[in-house]
Every structure is written in C-alpha cells, then in structure tokens.
C-alpha cells in the first residue's frame, strides 16, 4: 500500500498547454480595468467637484465658476443648511416616502400589466399592446395633464400628484412583457390543472421567476422617484410637502429656508452685482454698450429680426439713393402735391 502511494506521489506532472486566450488574458484584464477606471472617474469626478464646491464661497463661484481648488474656502453653505434643518429633514422624509411607495406600487402595476400583455390566450393582446406602444410615441401634452390632475382628480398639494404619474411607464411595460413572454405556458396550464387561481399563479410563480426584471426596473423607478422635481414643482405649493429636489432649488431655499431679512439682503446683493455686470458688459459680453437689451427675451428678439431687416431696407439708401428710386429728388417727387 505504501509502495503504491510512493509510486503515485513520484509520478511526473503532465504539462497542460495553455491556450492563446489564457496567454492573452492579462491584456484583456488591463483593458477591462482601464475601461472601468474611466467609467468610475466619470462618476467620481463630478461628485468630487460638488463636494469641493460646497466648501467654496459664493463670491468665488460667481466670479471664477466651479473649480477643484476654490479661490476662497467657506463654510457658509453648511451654516445656511443648518440654520433650519427641519426643512431638509422633512424633505428627505417626503422623498423617501414617495420613493418607497411609488417603487412598490409601480413594480406591482408594471408586472401585472406586462403579465396580461404577455399572455397568448388574452383576446385583446394586440390591441392593448398597440395602445401601450402608442403612448410611447405621442403624449397628451402638458396643459391637459395639468387640467386632469388639478380640476378632475383634485390632486393639487397632494403627494399622489407626485406618485401617480410615475406608476406606469410604457417602456417598463414593454420590457416586462418581453421578459414574461419567455415563461413556458405549460407551467401555467399545469398550475391551473392543480387548481391554482390566476392571482395565486401570478404571486407564487410569475413574480418569483421575474426577479431579475423586477430588480432592474425597480432600480430605475426608484431613481426616477428620488430625482422627481417636475411634478412636485407643478402640483406642490405647501412647504411641508416639498420633495428634496424641490426644496434644494435656489429659489425654494430663499423662500422656505431663509428668513425675511436674509432674503432682502441677498436680493439687494444680487441687484448690485447685476447692475455692475450690466454697466461692464451689457449682459451679453460686450463692454460699454448700454443695457437696452438686457431683459429682452430670446424668442421676441428672433421674431423681430426679419421685420427689422425689412424696415432697414426701406429706410436705408443704397449708394445714396432710396430703394426703387434714382435719388432724393425722385423720393420727394413721389409725395402728393397739395391741391
């Protein structure tokens, strides 16, 4: 027995040839590591810029912009936040509630809708799928949406106005439909033979099998609810119902966080800076040209370009002659003579 073990232990090792893929594995690892380093840098560098800018003074940001090394370091932003921490804590609570409730309800409704559209025995499968797909191409518009939420559903100053619009997304429904259509229909038929109802099949078979799709869509829905600002801006006016993104806006901070005296001082400071900027650059980067067009909107200015050009053509002399004439004499001769 010992002789066999010794002979087995003394057996020479067989050299296994390495393939080209194994030989080139370090190169692929280097490329993959470089790619992930670049992607991580694209995510980390903006975050680092935000953190560094929070320690920069307001005057430094207005004068020199955002920099990784500020001109002047300051804790004014943190003092401003901690002046009234209840505002931000309440906004965090509202955003967390909206995110949790909206994500759970959105996943449930998306899974149920996708499961119905993926069933081959559903009579109106094509019509319902086209109806969902049509909403991906065309929307109802902002004004009808606002009228529906405020005058018909009466959801003004309600968190339901922030939760309901994000519950169902046509893209999420189509993704869930494509995933659930891969489930073998024989499993559903066998469950029906065993006496399972539709609800039991959905909650005990379909949902556990669709965990990967639910995880992916849940992450997307949660991010959308956490970053929700537009619907809150439209329908939320009460400060105690403001979400985090709405409370973090500069105008919202001046209205809800600062006291009245601080707002007056801040407004006076901005007016002085705006007046100095107007005197220096006219607000458009050209110094010493006045401030006649500072508050002119872009679209009226664009609409006035063509009429102004026509008016200039009518009033401008070409080579000393008016348009359509031979000189000042001709222009005067066109006037109506008194009778």
Structure commentary:
- There is one protein chain.
- Helix content is 67%, strand content 0%.
- It has 339 residues and is mainly alpha-helical.
- Among the domains are: 32-78, no CATH class; 87-248, MetI-like fold.
- The longest helix has 34 residues, at 85-118.
- It is extended and about 75 Å long.
How big is the Rg?
Answer: 34 Å
User: What is the fold named in CATH at topology level of the domain at 87-248?
Assistant: MetI-like fold
CATH class bucket of the domain at 87-248? Mainly Alpha
What coarse outline follows from CA principal-axis ratios? extended
Instruction: Give the CATH superfamily of the domain at 87-248.
Output: MetI-like
Beta-strand content estimate: under 5%
Subcellular location: Cell membrane
Main location: membrane
InterPro entries: MetI-like (IPR000515), MetI-like_sf (IPR035906)
GO cellular component, one term: plasma membrane
